User: Fold this.
Amino acid sequence: MKAKSITYWTTTTVVMLVMTVSGLLALLHAPAMMTGLAHLGYPAYFSNLLGVAKIIGVIVVLAPGLTLFKEWAYSGFAIVVISAFYSHLLSGDGLNALEPLVIFAILEISYFTRPDSRRLVFPAKGQLAREAQ
Assistant:
């Protein structure tokens, strides 16, 4: 297995495990999750939205095909993680606010090491114009 493939699957596995566990904790309204969300100023119902979005995102990223949806899933995960960083920072969590940035870095490595079969392919510049003629 190539180094790029190993890197992709390792980082993807880490991020998908984090998103699955945190998504399930959110859906189950685990006390630790609910306390954390309340500390950040989010209402209890936000837990349902967050949990469903994370689980759907994990399914999309791991499923074969669905390249356009994978782009949206990665974007959604990036927004969630950056928002977590910002929320923790503004809630006075100090250096603990940096933890989501570690997940963000791993997410970015996963995104940029994806195999071609998991990428959205755009036509070469000018190719559509040539095909229209």
About this structure: The mean pLDDT is 91. The chain has one domain: 3-113. The two ends are 43 Å apart (CA to CA). Residues 15 and 107 are 6 Å apart (CA to CA).
